[in-house]
Design goal:
- The complex is a heterodimer of chains A (about 325) and B (about 290).
- Chain A is built from 14 helices and no strands.
- Chain A has helices at about 35-60, 85-90, 95-100, 110-140, 145-155, 160-175, 180-190, 195-205, 210-215, 220-235, 235-250, 255-260, 270-280, 285-320.
- In chain A, helix 1 (about 35-60) packs across helix 14 and helix 8 packs antiparallel against helix 11.
- The longest helix of chain A has about 35 residues, at about 285-320.
- Chain B starts with 10 loop residues before the first helix and ends with a helix.
- The longest helix of chain B is centred in the first third of the chain and has 35 residues, at about 65-100.
- Chain B is mainly α and about 290 residues long.
- Chain B has a single domain, classed as MetI-like fold (Orthogonal Bundle), CATH 1.10.3720.10.
- Chain B has 12 helices and 2 strands.
- Chain B has a two-stranded antiparallel sheet.
- The chains are: A mainly alpha (about 325), B mainly alpha (about 290).
- Chains A and B meet through helix 1, helix 4, helix 5, helix 6 and helix 7 of A and helix 1, helix 3, helix 4, helix 5 and helix 6 of B.
- Chain B: It holds the Pfam family BPD_transp_1.
């Protein structure tokens, strides 16, 4: 393709010069009816509705009294809105009150599960990011024998699907007596994941060496340089990888299901699965389940509200080198 | 400094920096890999010590019709899921690229991706419930028959595929969108001057330049789709009559319901091999078609 130096920033009326151009062309001049644009916007609008409606329905169901669940199943708005479902899944009501509100009376304490999930995510997000930053820096900047080979071996683990290491890791954690403990749950991803290591090394490879060298001339050691110079420079990528790690940890299901069956360490996702099974009736406790589901979405939705731009931009960063 | 003498290494410091990563890798990646390989040659019930049985597990798995059934179900899921996700994501990315720079829109599209698969499964289980679900209520009020999205063996995999398309398509679209932003603006201007319409520009300019990202996304989502578990575990538990028992779920059942750890490990290894071959072939094909272009 031949490149033309750009004559004008906006190529308006470009197809005006070619009279036989079919009207199907979306980029039409302003005077023509922009059918293509309208269709395009319509598709985006439909997508937006399709994206949001399940969330709306989840919240709407959570606000519906259990007794109205059949009557309201086709209504877009709860006829008698209530927050009782949230109260009962947060463990704020007594067993009788819970039963009266349509629950099974089994103990459900999403306040605890939310806390457990937060602990799980914060531990993994913090330590994995820190250790992978250290490792990534060493593999990018420090000289030592076998560096390239070792890095290649570590990154090869990216190709191994989770289930392959999951089975032996379960047995290992069991043999160490760490079943149903926080440490057993966070252990496999606390120190590293190949993805985080790879991601951070890529970043360190690309930052200019000058600042580090200047600090070295001033007599600072490598560790000091890392803490005082490199880490502050890497804030953006560190937050990005920590965010991604936290989101994945929040979504985790199979591993916490295997290791953390006890209520004391149960995470939100595991609790949701257990809750679905606990229903004494033929029909699951939908209003309670939707209240619990809403609670599982709120923390990540808040992340998105406050860090949305950063998350969206970080995708540009991780997806493409 | 003498040129031939290697620069002073950072051995000790480096060890300090990489020790946590190495430890994590050795304990939770390397050791389990070796252990899993060993188990695949043993009869291991989780309760007693593994007992060496040679290649028996491999022979049994390959002769197990349930294994092949699960592979078939998984493949069906992968094809529908990866296909719909990629096509819709491309369309959305192209539309966003041409119509709007709205961060709010992009942020909203990302929301389903942030939500646990378990939640996604539950919400759709409720929306698509045969009797009380909103969708069937609407069908009913329009005089249509109710649809057993999760109870009809022929519908259950398409249903789960589309649910996960809903969950991941926004994320994929944003990856494509980011790739489109990297295409030099002059390319589009040149195409416009040549009188190319939107569709032509998309297929002749955008798509070819997007190929590296397309390759990456396809490989990643293919590997990811083969590992579907959460949604199935929550919505159908592999039912009805194993119609949605994907390979990950079957491995999980063999290991933790039937305590056939050796057998499960063997299936996991076969899955690794299949994924390895698929990735290799896919990368080869994409690279081949890329070189044909230039």
């Amino acid at each position: 393709m031949t490149m033309t130096t750009m004559p004008s920033p906006v190529p308006v009326d470009a197809d005006e010069s070619t009279p036989p151009a079919p009207p199907a062309s979306v980029r039409t001049a302003r005077r023509r009816p922009p059918i293509g644009r309208i269709i395009g916007w319509a598709i985006l609008a439909i997508t937006l509705v399709a994206t949001l409606f399940p969330f709306y329905w989840m919240v709407k169901s959570a606000l519906t009294p259990a007794a109205d669940v059949i009557a309201d199943a086709g209504n877009l708005w709860p006829s008698h809105p209530t927050v009782v479902n949230f109260a009962r899944v947060l463990g704020l009501l007594s067993a009788e009150e819970t039963r009266a509100a349509g629950g099974s009376g089994a103990s459900i304490n999403f306040a605890l599960y939310l806390w457990n999930s937060i602990v799980y995510c914060v531990l993994i997000g913090t330590f994995q990011t820190l250790f992978c930053a250290m490792g990534g820096y060493a593999f990018a900047r420090l000289r030592f024998r076998g560096r390239e080979v070792l890095f290649g071996i570590l990154i090869a683990a990216l190709m191994v699907p989770g289930i392959f290491t999951l089975l032996p890791n379960f047995v290992l954690v069991r043999d160490l007596g760490l079943l149903n403990t926080v440490w057993g749950m966070v252990a496999p991803s606390l120190l590293m994941t190949p993805f985080a290591l790879f991601f951070l090394r890529q970043f360190f490879l690309n930052i200019p060496k000058d600042v580090e060298e200047a600090a070295m001339i001033d007599g600072a050691g490598k560790i000091r340089i890392f803490w005082r110079v490199v880490l502050p420079m890497a804030q953006g990528p560190l937050i990005t990888i920590a965010l991604i790690t936290v989101v994945w940890a929040w979504k985790d299901y199979l591993w916490p299901l295997l290791i953390g069956r006890d209520e004391a360490v149960r995470t939100v996702t595991v609790a949701l699965g257990v809750y679905l099974q606990q229903s004494p009736n033929t029909q699951p406790d939908w209003t309670g389940l939707m209240a619990a589901s809403t609670l599982s979405v709120i923390p990540v939705a808040l992340l998105l509200v406050f860090l949305g731009r950063r998350i969206v931009e970080s995708l540009n960063f991780t997806g493409i080198k | 400094m003498a040129p031939r003498r290697p620069r002073r290494g950072d051995g000790r410091v480096a060890l300090f920096f990489i020790a946590p990563v190495l430890l994590g890798f050795a304990i939770f990646y390397l050791y389990p890999t070796v252990r899993g390989l060993w188990w695949s040659f043993t009869d291991y019930s989780l309760l007693a010590e593994p007992e060496f049985v040679g290649l028996d597990n491999y022979a049994d798995v390959l002769a197990d019709s349930e294994f092949w059934n699960s592979m078939g179900v998984t493949l069906q899921y992968v094809v529908i899921n990866v296909g719909s996700q990629t096509l819709i994501a491309l369309l959305l990315a192209a539309l966003m690229h041409r119509l709007t720079r709205s961060v709010a829109l992009r942020t909203t599209l990302l929301l389903p991706w942030l939500v646990p698969n378990v939640t996604v499964g539950l919400v759709w289980l409720w929306l698509l419930d045969t009797n009380l679900g909103f969708v069937n209520r609407m069908f009913d009020s329009m005089g249509l028959d109710k649809v057993g999205f999760f109870t009809d063996p022929n519908l259950v995999i398409p249903t789960i595929s589309l649910i996960n398309t809903w969950a991941f398509v926004g994320y994929t679209a944003l990856l494509f969108y980011a790739g489109m932003l990297q295409v030099p603006q002059e390319m589009f201007e040149a195409a416009a001057i040549d009188g190319a319409g939107e569709l032509r520009t998309f297929f002749r300019v955008t798509l070819p330049l997007l190929r590296p990202i397309l390759a990456l996304v396809l490989v990643v989502s293919l590997i990811g789709s083969f590992q579907i578990f959460d949604t199935v575990a929550v919505t159908t538990k592999g039912g009805p009559v194993n119609a949605s028992r994907v390979i990950y779920y079957y491995i999980y059942q063999q290991a933790f319901t039937f305590f056939h750890m050796g057998y499960a490990a063997t299936m996991a290894i076969l899955l690794v091999l299949i994924l390895g071959v698929l990735t290799f072939v896919q990368l080869r094909l994409l690279r081949a078609s890329e070189s044909q272009l230039t």
